From TrEMBL:
UniProt source species: Nocardioides iriomotensis
GO biological process assignments: proteolysis
Native organism taxonomy: Bacteria, Bacillati, Actinomycetota, Actinomycetes, Propionibacteriales
Name by which UniProt lists this protein: Peptidase S8
Protease among keywords: yes
InterPro entries: Peptidase_S8/S53_dom, Peptidase_S8/S53_dom_sf, Peptidase_S8_Asp-AS, Peptidase_S8_His-AS, Peptidase_S8_Ser-AS, Peptidase_S8_subtilisin-like, Peptidase_S8_subtilisin-rel, S8pro/Inhibitor_I9
Domain of life (superkingdom): Bacteria
Family: Belongs to the peptidase S8 family.
Signal peptide (from-to): 1-26
Amino acid sequence: MRRLTMTAIAVAGLAIGSTTSLSAVAAPPTGGVDRVSGYIVVLRDGVAPARAADAQADRYGADVTHLYRNALSGYSARMTAGAAKDLARDDRVAYVQRDGVVHATAQTLPTGINRADAELSPAARVDGADERVDVDVAVIDTGVDLDHPDLNVYTAGAKNCSTGKSAEDGNGHGSHVAGTIGALDDANGVVGMAPGARIWPVRVLNAQGSGTFSAIICGIDYVTAHADEIEIANMSLGGAGSDDRSCGATNGDAMHAAICRSVAAGVTYVVAAGNESDDAANHVPAAYDEVITVSALADFNGTPGGGAASTCRADQDDTFAAFSNYGADVDLIAPGVCILSTWKGAAYNTISGTSMASPHVAGGAALYAATHPTASPDQVKAALQAAGTTDWSNADDPDGVKETLLNVSTF
């Protein structure tokens, strides 16, 4: 379920590598080779950079690579350390600096991924090497950013049951869900629970994040048609309703009937409990017994124990999220507060909701399915519950029942 509170988009920056300013450059080691390296030459005020670069290149044996005329007066060049030392004494030179290396900021391990111990999972293999989990996950949502560089989107499997002409995400919510499930482990951006999982974008909600039961059933119908390919489906959405029957009975709930058939076909459904601070029994698909219903944990540092300062909203660390639905229909709890993930427009964003908790579990289910390809949805649910922990505080949980907290370290 999408929370309306959002923080600013997180953008990638640059981490500047080590540099050395040289008023006098150290000489090469005695007996060693005076190797050619890159240097930045900053000239004194009033010195013409082009003329100085030409003259100094000839005199000191430098190979000029860039000329600076505006932000500063100077140039870059490749030369030996000995030549750089001599050049630093030139009357026209203010100083010489050894060139440095810059990299895009390192990949972020979001707090939710950390708390679920996905980085410890042998199947996830979180090491920056972009090894991809061989599993297919349908994101039944607002669509997905089809070109996001941090997602493995299976565009041939895209389906639009909502407005617009494609499964492209016009809201951002579906892209956020997709990133938590399977953002690439490529040393950039963020990493997901099941890195590189193939994401099937199934758009059932419009750009405002709204939709109809009929559109959602269209999405479920599509996933069921591809049940031989799709192992997991995430539905971070919901509406008013209840579960007053079991599969095989009938009470006129077409969405429940569709879920029943899809689960029978082998697809594991993971759904959000809802954000109304209400019993999940009053909301569908959360109330259905055949799905894995997920409530939200507030966790601000990715580790148990509590005490971390809140970040994007005023929940208490390591406790039941204030907005989360609860009750007997909840099967697991997972981080859902201030979650950083991918966003539309190749961006990243931090938002909160049981919508953010559900994809953590969907990613965990994907890890299990990848190594247990014949597991039934019931077996996937049982495995997730058996692997979880109770290492969190449920003092503020309205129903007093301590749900199992997602943990995939053994998957």
